[in-house]
Specification:
The protein is α+β, with helices and mostly antiparallel strands. The protein has 13 helices and 7 strands. β4 and β5 form a beta hairpin. α5 runs antiparallel to α6, α10 packs antiparallel against α11 and α11 runs antiparallel to α13.
Length: about 300
């Protein structure tokens, strides 16, 4: 199957599978943004779907039964009841017969409200878009602009942010108050304060309840490669067996993660040298994680 055909057909296929099992999903980014006039047309490299957090693992298990496999082997724990911008937010799945990747998102970083609350609000305002001649649920243009702006801020892509702001000035003209209201309801005012100020002509007020998470968000986008807090949040929320898996994966990352997030040399030799060095580091790391585990258990027992 050609890559472009796979990217076009996969969203309605996922919607059909999810709907058959009562799982709510929203297609995000990609062709939907272009259809809504929020960015220029381009060829998407993968498919992104936002999943009802309450049914996220159900959909993952369902797709695994159909031959999809986790690309990175991430260890995900239940999301905190309060909002979060640190916990890993997606699984990237691959299938031998589909030449494109599928990113399943269980929440979207930058929306500071609790994940379930954010999804329910997005769902309540959803629109439909024609993807491969099938009606698929998608965020409203206003909500989708907020999501896309958070994405480009996290990736540090200034030109894309400028493109989004230019599009919003046209597509969302006359709906500026709705844009601000939705940003407030979804907890995006703080992270998007500067773009919103440029669009609205006035600086929106950041709710006091968002300040702590906003600090974490700011630290994340300015230093995305060094996030011990993300691991500590997961470790704190995990159960005993999952904590062991998290610690092992942190000390001994997969080859793909090693190349993506660590200074690994080219070729098999570079990977061999990386893991050889980890043999010296792993005992100290595991010891630190065991101490964290004991400390967490002590707090739970109090």
């Amino acid at each position: 199957m050609p890559h472009a055909v796979a990217v076009a057909l996969l969203p309605p296929a996922i919607h059909h599978i999810a709907a058959a099992h009562g799982i709510r999903v929203l297609s995000i980014k990609g062709a939907v943004l272009s259809q809504q006039g929020l960015r220029s047309r381009r060829r998407p490299s993968d498919v992104d779907v936002l999943v009802d957090p309450a049914r996220f693992e159900d959909l993952v298990l369902l797709l695994r039964s159909m031959g999809w496999r986790d690309r990175d082997g991430k260890v995900l724990v239940p999301l905190p009841r309060d909002g979060t911008v640190l916990a890993p937010h997606a699984r990237t799945l691959e299938h031998p017969r589909w030449p494109c990747q599928l990113d399943l998102h269980r929440y979207y970083p930058g929306f500071l409200r609790p994940a379930q609350d954010v999804f329910d609000r997005l769902w309540a305002h959803r629109h439909t878009a024609q993807l491969a001649h099938a009606d698929c649920d998608v965020p409203s243009p206003t909500d989708h602009w907020l999501l896309a702006a958070l994405h480009v801020l996290r990736s540090g892509d200034g030109p894309q942010l400028q493109e989004l702001e230019t599009a919003a000035a046209e597509v969302l003209r006359g709906r500026e108050q709705d844009l601000l209201t939705r940003a407030e309801e979804l907890g995006a005012v703080g992270p998007l304060r500067e773009p919103l100020t440029r669009l609205l002509g006035a600086s929106p007020v950041v709710p006091e309840s968002d300040v702590d998470l906003l600090v974490e968000w700011t630290r994340r986008i300015h230093d995305p490669g060094n996030l011990p807090d993300a691991f500590l949040e997961q470790f704190r929320e995990a159960g005993g067996a999952t904590r062991i898996r998290l610690a092992f994966r942190q000390a001994w990352p997969t080859p793909r993660s090693a190349r993506a997030f660590h200074d690994v040399g080219d070729g098999p030799l570079g990977l061999f040298r990386f893991y050889l060095a980890r043999l010296a580091l792993a005992p100290a790391k595991m010891s630190a994680y065991v101490r964290l585990h004991r400390r967490a258990r002590t707090k739970e027992e109090r």
